[in-house]
Design brief:
about 140 residues; mainly alpha; about 0% strand; globular
């Protein structure tokens, strides 16, 4: 269990560290494959002293965070935040904001012409709106 928790924490820290300045959705999809391998290992066989899917719980924070970004399910996250039955109960808004800002920076820096394409502009507006709402959650939670 401690090895799985260490792996999960290390993988999350890898996404959050300051040296990682930009993140793309494609990179998150690849990262997700690595996490799925870890989850598969956790499911692979019984471990003496643990019940069923206990080892998989070590990856639940990371799983919910990746699902939120890959499914781009911000409306659910924002609407249900703070509810005990929330789908993304384990996703910290500060963590989500850090990753979202890394994605926003990627979209802005990588394509000089992105501002001229409507779908890129719309995506940036959505990211900006979600970031603003996350900041609101963080500020209200710390008040």
């Amino acid at each position: 269990m401690s090895a799985c928790k260490h792996l999960s924490t290390s993988l999350l820290q890898l996404l959050l560290e300051a040296e990682v300045r930009q993140l793309t959705l494609g990179a998150l999809h690849q990262f997700n494959l690595d996490v799925e391998e870890c989850e598969q290992f956790a499911r692979s066989g019984p471990v003496p002293g643990f019940q069923g899917d206990t080892l998989q719980l070590a990856f639940i924070d990371l799983r919910q965070l990746l699902d939120l970004f890959i499914q781009w399910d911000w409306s659910t996250y924002l609407a249900d935040y703070g509810q005990p039955t929330c789908k993304y109960l384990r996703v910290n808004p500060t963590t989500a904001l850090i990753l979202l800002e890394k994605m926003r920076d990627t979209s802005r820096k990588n394509n000089v012409f992105a501002q001229f394409r409507k779908n890129e502009r719309d995506k940036q507006k959505l990211i900006d709106t979600v970031a603003k709402q996350l900041r609101g959650l963080i500020n209200s939670h710390h008040s």
